Amino acid sequence: MNTPTEHFAPLARLLHWLMALMIIAMLFIGAGMVASVSERHEWLIHLHKPLGIAILLLVVIRLLVRFSTRQPSLPANLPGWQVLAAKASHVLLYALMLSLPLLGWAMISAAGDPVMLGSSLQLPSILPANAQVFAVLRKAHGYLAYLLFLTVLLHLAAALFHAWIRRDGVLQSMLRGRD
User: Fold this and answer.
1) Model pTM?
2) Alpha helices of the chain — where are they, by DSSP H?
3) Residue 1 located in a structural domain
4) What is the pLDDT of residue 21?
5) How confident is the model at residue 37 (pLDDT cuts 50, 70, 90)?
6) Close Cβ partners of 177 (under 8 Å, ≥ 6 residues apart)
7) Domain range spanning residue 108?
């Protein structure tokens, strides 16, 4: 059971790439929402909310999969600071994937608006309506979204560094495998 593996579990890989696409889409949708307050872009808000809740649900599943399956080890010759950076960036990515949807949900609740997941499914408010709390949460949500964008870019840069420079199989472990 403790035998090393060279690849992430198939479900872990599927969740990784599905969530990568969803998060990139979410970042662009969020940027589009911020760039315009026009009602023409209200459809982005109606897309942003359920996508955020889907990401929240998937990250919980992803964490369960991560803690219940074997993970490939980092290369033994990887410098200590890179090992630390890899572990810290993964913790940060998971923290942001959890906190941003919750913060968005809290923000919408504080605005006094319903969190609708379609035309008939409404999530309960998790905070009472409060304009000052809404303003703080809105700023926090925006700053953390920028942090997520930066972290995703660094994650991508690290993956490409492992694939093109080090050629150590780190990227391959998330691309395909037999286990």
Assistant:
1) 0.91
2) 10-35, 42-68, 80-110, 131-160, 172-175
3) no
4) 97
5) low
6) 5, 6, 7, 8, 10, 13
7) 10-175
Q: How is residue 112 written in tokens?
A: 């006094």
Residue 38 amino acid letter: S
Hey, how many other C-beta atoms are within 10 angstroms of the C-beta on 161? 14
- Range 64-100 burial, b when 16+ CB lie within 10 A, else e: ebbeeeeebeeeeebeeeeeeebeeeeebbeebbebb
Asked if residue 1 has pLDDT above 50, the reply is no
**68 φ, ψ to 5°?**
-110, 0
User: 128 φ, ψ to 5°?
Assistant: -75, 155
Cβ(152)–Cβ(24) under 8 Å?
A: yes
Q: For the chain, give the percent of residues with pLDDT over 70.
A: 93
- Specify the CATH number for the domain of residue 21: 1.20.950
Q: Which pLDDT value is given to residue 133? A: 98
Q: How confident is the model at residue 56 (pLDDT cuts 50, 70, 90)?
A: very high
Inside any domain, residue 19: yes
Judge residue 27's burial from the number of C-beta atoms within 10 Å of its C-beta, 0-12 exposed, 13-18 middle, 19 or more buried: middle
